[in-house]
Amino acid sequence: MGRGGRFLVVVPPLVGHVNPVVGVAGALVGRGHEVAWVGRGDVVGRLVGVGARVFEGGGGVGVVRPGGLRGPGALKFLWEAFLVPLAEAMMAGVAGAVEAFGPDVMLVDQQAVAGAVVAMRSGLPWATSATTAAELGNPLAAMPKVDAWVRELLLDLEVRSGLPTTAASARYQSTYGDLRFSPHLVLAYSTAALSGDVPALSETLRYVGPSIAARPTDPTFPWDRLPLPNDDDDRRRLVFAGVGTANADAGAAFLAACADAIGDRPHLFGVIADPGGAIGGTTADNVLVVPHVPQLDLLRRADAAICHAGQNTVCEALYHGVPLVVAPIRDDQPVVAQQVAAAGAGIRIRFAHANPAVIGKALDQVLDDPAYGAAARRIGDSFRAAGGAQAAAEHLESLLVAAG
């Protein structure tokens, strides 16, 4: 291939959209390439590691979504108040990074669409980093007016950013012709075993499974409180519960209900990630509440997980063969939750009805019925077989070859 290539990664200021790409970037560097990032420095810089080159992208500051928003209202807020303004704020930073770094290929998160605009303006090959596979199945097809509205927003952004109207309009006649889907390569951190086949994207979609990179250890985490990882039938079974950092505002009552459900079951031990300090007062002796958890290390030892059906948490749990209780809140989460249930790897419950009794009943089912664990392990096997970060890097190298 000659000299190593230069890859520019464009990400939004969202932890769940940065973490999967850290492993891909590491794989590219390990294969002799240069990698630089564009994103909000205070978010991206602490996640991508010391020594990584990060260009300031800006945007995404001070946007707080009301916790009660659900359905189309939440989607409208996401695009109008966050994603489109984020793209506008990042445009100059991405263009400056392209000029300064001189990339051969760009890797663009599907929610950092400024990268797609700049790549097309610059004539650069680019790949989509589909950190949520829910978009792949065109979930808005059942709501054609909403789908058309989102696509009109994106088309308007293209036109205002200087891309030719005629060419853009032609692309938008395709279901997958907008800025969320590269015509060159779409990397999805899942597999068909969970997210299904997408025949319309057969030429560009590549499932690589979760891209899981090593994360900093937390020396303060009280591992001594947890049940020992052994095969003793008398060991209390370990349950992880969390709703992610972006959903802390909406998840307070849910986390408290999780604590109560686990507390009522002395044969279990629960670890609850509570970054917002939503659970006040004392909890049962078999429940540990902490602001942050070493999630990957914890899932290696867990017997079940309760979560909001966020793509990363779900895939990290299934990667380790851990069955799930999922209570989706908004955005892509209902789609991911339905995928988990359809695959037999967990039980979906309604977030609004998730009291201790409902959570406890679902938790008992996924722990007591071995079919859930078997399905989770089957999906985990498919994830590992897909190749992860190394497979993603190999696919990206194909764009480097095409670029000459």
Automatic annotation (TrEMBL):
Gene3D superfamilies: Glycogen Phosphorylase B. Keywords: Transferase. PANTHER family: STEROL 3-BETA-GLUCOSYLTRANSFERASE, STEROL 3-BETA-GLUCOSYLTRANSFERASE UGT80A2. This is Glycosyltransferase, MGT family. GO terms for biological process: antibiotic biosynthetic process. SUPFAM superfamilies: UDP-Glycosyltransferase/glycogen phosphorylase. It comes from Catenulispora acidiphila (strain DSM 44928 / JCM 14897 / NBRC 102108 / NRRL B-24433 / ID139908). It holds the Pfam family EryCIII-like_C. Residues 284-396 form the Erythromycin biosynthesis protein CIII-like C-terminal domain.
